[in-house]
Amino acid sequence: MKMQTFAGQGRCQAVASLMIQPTPEALFLGAIADVFRTCLHAVHDVNRQGVTDDYLAVAFPQTRAGRDSLQIGEELAVLGSFSSLTNLLETDRVRTLIRRAMILAPEFGPVDPGSEEFGTAYYRNRSIERSSAGKVARQNRFRHSKGEGPLKLLVQPRRNTSVLPLQYGTRTLFIEKKIGRISQKPLLVSSYGFSAKTNPAFLPVRPLADCAVLAS
Q1: In degrees rounded to 5, what are phi and psi of residue 71?
Q2: Torsion angle, CA of 4/5/6/8, rounded to 10 degrees?
Q3: What are the distances in angstroms from CA 78 to CA 36, 54, 106, 138?
Q4: What angle do CA 136, 142, 143 make, to 5 degrees?
Q5: Which tens digit of pLDDT belongs to each residue from 157-173?
Q6: Nearest to 161 by CA among 71, 61, 74
Q7: What is the spatial distance between Cα 12 and Cα 5, in angstroms, rounded to a whole number?
Q8: What stretches in the chain show pLDDT beneath 50?
């Protein structure tokens, strides 16, 4: 039975997790971006084809500030039910990564929200997306097809080390993170696996850099 949620959102059960890690060979080839892009697409596919009370959520345990933006690190955590995580492993995208030795064989790990007081929510910054190159290009193509003008000008984004840009085809999502207390509220995420800024889903995952801040 489907759970009634906000449009485009579903509940992540977060009873188990999979840690996606590129192999040393993939790291040597500089393929980490392609590996994670493929995995994120697979998460999106599983959520879109699943039910709204069993979505997958995405977390980045190794994020750190880079020169111009947040860096993803070398691990990608996916949280959900055993059923939804199994569906992820059975996608052609993930099977291909394993067959080509691009990621280590993922193993199920336990998730115990009660062991963590604080967690991390990952949400889209739509204000940045509205001025991104891909968004402006799509808007300009639409306006041109309708004979409308003038065309929008692209404003170069400012350096922002708190935002993680993720590429989905021609679309770029800009992800921010927030530390907060884990509650008993349902973890609501989009089909991409991210929560909304107005309703953050604090997952029992904390990037290493944030652990140091909380401990100080």
Answers
A1: -100, 145
A2: -100
A3: 11, 13, 10, 30
A4: 85
A5: 455 567 887 888 777 88
A6: 71
A7: 12
A8: 1-7, 152-157, 211-216
Tell me if 143 sits within 8 A of 181, measured CB to CB.
no
In terms of pTM, does the model score above 0.85?
Answer: no
C-alpha 216/C-alpha 207 separation (Å) is: 15
DSSP codes of every residue in the chain: -PPP-STTEEEE--SEEEEE-B-HHHHHTT-HHHHHHHHHHHHHHHHHHS-TTSB-EEE-TT-EE-SSSEE--S-EEEEE-HHHHHHHHTSHHHHHHHHTT-B----EEE--GGG-SEEEEEEE-HHHHTTSHHHHHHHHHHHHHTT--SPPPPPPPPP-TT-EEEEETTEEEEEEEEEEE--SS-EEEETTS-BBTTB---BS---HHHHHHHH-
Tokens at 140, concatenated: 């300009």
- Residue written as token pair 């003008």: 149
Would you say how long the chain is, in residues?
216
